Amino acid sequence: MLGALTGAVEQGLIYGIMALGVYLTFRVLDFPDLTVDGSFVTGASTAAMMIVLGYSPLLATIAALAAGFIAGIGTGLLHTKGGINPLLSGILMMIALYSINLRIMGLTVENSVGRPNIPLLQSETLITKYISFIESLGIPTYYAIVVGALVVVAVVKIALDLFLKTEVGLALRATGDNKRMIRSFSGNTDRLTIIGLAISNGLVALSGALIAQYGKFADVGMGIGMIVIGLASVIIGEALFGTKSIVRITLAVIVGAVIYRLVLAFALRIEFLDTGDMKLLTALIVVLALVLPTKLSKLKKQALRKQQVEKRGGVELANHS
Amino acid sequence: MLTIHNLQKRFNEGSHDEKIALRSIDLTLQDKDFVTIIGSNGAGKSTLLNCISGTLPIEQGDVLLDNQNVEHLPEHKRAKWIGRVFQDPMAGTSPTLTIEENLAIAYSRNTKRSFRFAATKHRREFFKSELEALHLNLENRLTTKVGMLSGGERQALSLLMATFTNPSILLLDEHTAALDPARAELITQLTKQLVDQKGLTTLMVTHNMQQAIDLGNRLVMMDQGSIIFEADEERKKSLTVQDLLNEFKQIKGSQALSDRMLLEA
Description:
Radius of gyration of chain A: 22 Å
Strand content of chain B: 15-25%
Largest sheet of chain A: 2 strands, antiparallel
Number of domains of chain A: 1
Number of domains of chain B: 1
Strand order of the largest sheet of chain B: 6-7-8-3-9-10
CATH class of chain A: Mainly Alpha
Order of helices and strands of chain B: EEEHEEHEHHHEHEHEEHHH
CATH class of chain B: Alpha Beta
CATH superfamily of chain B: P-loop containing nucleotide triphosphate hydrolases
Oligomer: heterodimer
CATH topology of chain B: Rossmann fold
Strand content of chain A: under 5%
Shape of chain B: globular
Strand order of the largest sheet of chain A: 1-2
CATH architecture of chain B: 3-Layer(aba) Sandwich
């Protein structure tokens, strides 16, 4: 059980990077970007392909980030220059990436056609390198990945926090907030939207690259429902920790991603549930996370009103007697 | 300095609903001119401002800012010269950003945005001293989210954000119309104060004739897309609301007054 928990936390932290990307588009830019399902795999397949071809895992991971960045630019161009609505731009890019991802993984076979998956069982990855480094120091490796993932996700989080406080970062936030205003202050909303989508999908692809190395495979179907998982993390995090400041929200999003994994790990321990049910569970968690807060606040208000009425009634009765 | 020459604008061109919004507008603002524009609904006042700022494309005519033709520049590039305050108090600020972050955005209006921190210590001091001029105690609430402010406070902040980087021209689009009378008066006073202090060239649209008379050194009356009356500095000094009504009657005929004149005295 403890092993499953550690695994869930490890995955949660790595998926947390993806969730930060989703937060950037959904919340900061107010752009529901569905590219994520594709760009996550683009990151995974780019990293896996390069690792199998013998490049250094670090270089492969950086290349994955760059690939996601380009995918985001693509979605941004479809929306801003092509005038296609945000949802459709993302869906189109996602579908296009499906074929591109097959091609990327296809680069590992001689005659260069598509390939649906790449196993990394025997390959040296960032994770195996890191573990052997920790071993060489003589430290037990049981929590090594948790700590490593924590450091990586913290670096990404702090970098994102700082970026959102720069001049460009502020302009980006204002673009999601009030386009008319930022235009009247020389903000090029088209360019800012593209920058936001690029960074977001870069983070998503980075997360995909790390998950591929963590799980020792890349698969063309591994991104299905990724956007929903990201959204679940954002919503859970915001519901638990509020939206007071950027620093707090980004932390909340990461914790949300970990909680999501933990909930899933517990759910899968229930006898009759199978790994294939995970997407259904994900959808249910998001539905609950979306519906519960509004229902709860409604109930709270009703209860409060009832209380007030009773109080008033009580006072009146007291006056009568 | 702003020069508008033979500016024309149509909506729904080529369809049944074609509407001429501006017919050959000529208007020049010298440096430090403060021109108020009045006119009834549909006179073309806001359209004129939107054509200057680039929110609406221009079909014919020229708009020159500091002697440069800006006709082909998109809105965000023209913003280098233009400070704007909108009618909607929510439109000029970004609600999820703090006061200092909003000011920082305005601060980089005429510089290229980079990956520097937006709210530095040095800038914060500057923001504070600028906010003090508003007398709304906003200088002590720099890290408050703008969405928490009242409409009047937001509009005052918008006004400061539009003016404190000394734009070549300040465009005010009925920026007091959505406020209650007390707030409107406050914003009117602030407008006067900020424009005087910085010597800004200003073009202000208003529904309120008294406000148009009280503020600025020149006055323009528009109707159905044309300028129908202009008062220069000399004339404006002695101008009254009754004079304006008389002018309008004379130009449009007396029967026009009853149904077309929807101005507030």
